[in-house]
Amino acid sequence: MDGIGALFEVTYAEPVDSGQAVARASGPMAGFRFDRREWSGAVADLGVMVPIAVALIVSNGLAPTAVLLPPALLYVVSAFRYRLPIPVQPLKAFGAIAIALGLGVDEIAAGAILMGVVFVSLGMTGLLDRAASVFPRSVIRGVQIAVGLIFLKIAWGLVIDPPSSFEVPEISGWWLLTAGIVVGSVAWLGRRHGAGLVVVVIGLAAAVITGWSDLAFGPSAMPLPSFSVDAFVAAATALVLPQLPLTFANSCLAPADAARVYFGDEAAKRVTPSRLAVSLGAADLVAGAIGGMPVCHGAGGLTAHRSFGARSGGAPFIMGVTLLVLGVGFGAGLAGVLAHFPVSILAGLLAVAGLLHLTLARDLRFPRDWLVAVIVGAFGLMGQLALGLVIGLALAWLFGRLPLTSAAPRRDR
């Protein structure tokens, strides 16, 4: 079989971690899995994407189709580029600031262009791979602790003080919190059996039923941004500068490290900081050109995808195609429908991903390493990750000069 047929030819093989037969693809998609765990893992990271995407559409005026195209394309590209469940997420600090300040399409697009230029340039030079070699494990774990705590913080906010862009029933935040805990518990206990997929399907069904009047077919209108010097200046100072350290640490260094921890050196050999920088940077150039949502590769998303069953490029391929269908096929009415997605489901999935992401720190051996990781994590939680990285590197260097025992390694890497 050749051509398009070869692309989707499916064979069956026994997975390493399950006794069940798993659908795998051959040809260009060799090694991809499409079993229920891969589908469950594919949707496990919606807790980050949906709230920011809905807010950018409803509050900032971005076109729904333009919002979904960059993550859709990056997911599909990542599936083939890395052949692992590498995540795609909105730029979190960037998005939060843009929403809080009420910035329009022009400023957001200008910021996406700047992020794209910076990270494509850094990735093409290979500087990030060399920079990664000086970051000890304790500092990387600190970044991952910060992301896990941020996920928990966002999950808490979703149920205690839901964003105004969501249509939330007039009930107490404590009822939403209880629902979120129930969803999270079900997702946690059943994460190896497709529970994440089940709760997301329930959430989508609820959103479609309650937002049925907003449903419309076809893509939304996509007015292109209008660039100006003022837009680039505003984007550089308000959006790009706060986002740069987070993207460098959590979208380049931390995912490469987590991929090796989860899948081993051989399987994760394609996942390097420089390659991650190029792929996210290219996606942000696309986002800027069409006035869409800028994106990245968040390490917490890798934990979410993997923890709910994803093990191959199948999960990002599934997610990318799904977002593409939603954006092009239903973009015209998507804003109204997604605003009805139950925040308790988003919060529950996000909390599980945050807790699981914190467990990456379990391989730290000494109190000094924990001290560094906790300090970096605390500064990251407060939105001062750049300062946390500087302090963490200084402490790691200092502690590296103070041997604990004759058997203690002088460096983490």
Q: What this model shows, in words?
A:
The N terminus and C terminus are likely disordered. A two-stranded antiparallel ribbon has the order 1-2. A two-stranded antiparallel sheet has the order 3-4. Helix 6 crosses helix 11 and helix 6 runs antiparallel to helix 12. Helix content is 65%, strand content 3%. It has one domain. The chain has 413 residues and is mostly helical. A hairpin with an 8-residue loop joins strand 1 and strand 2. The longest helix has 35 residues.
Flag low-confidence runs: 1-22, 403-413
How much beta, percentage-wise? under 5%
First-residue to last-residue Cα separation: 46 Å
Mean pLDDT: 84
Instruction: Report the major sheet.
Output: 2 strands, antiparallel
Shape by Cα distribution:
globular
The total count of strands amounts to: 4
Helix content: 55-70%
Structural class: mainly alpha
Radius of gyration: 21 Å
Number of domains: 1
Strand order of the largest sheet: 1-2
Pattern of helices and strands: HEEHHHEHHHHHHHHEHHHHHH
Give the count of helical stretches: 18
Walk me through the topology.
Elements: H1 3-7, E1 10-13, E2 22-25, H2 36-42, H3 46-58, H4 64-82, E3 89-90, H5 92-101, H6 105-125, H7 127-132, H8 137-160, H9 173-189, H10 195-210, H11 229-263, H12 273-290, E4 295-296, H13 299-307, H14 314-329, H15 334-338, H16 343-358, H17 367-381, H18 385-400
Antiparallel strand pairs: 1-2, 3-4
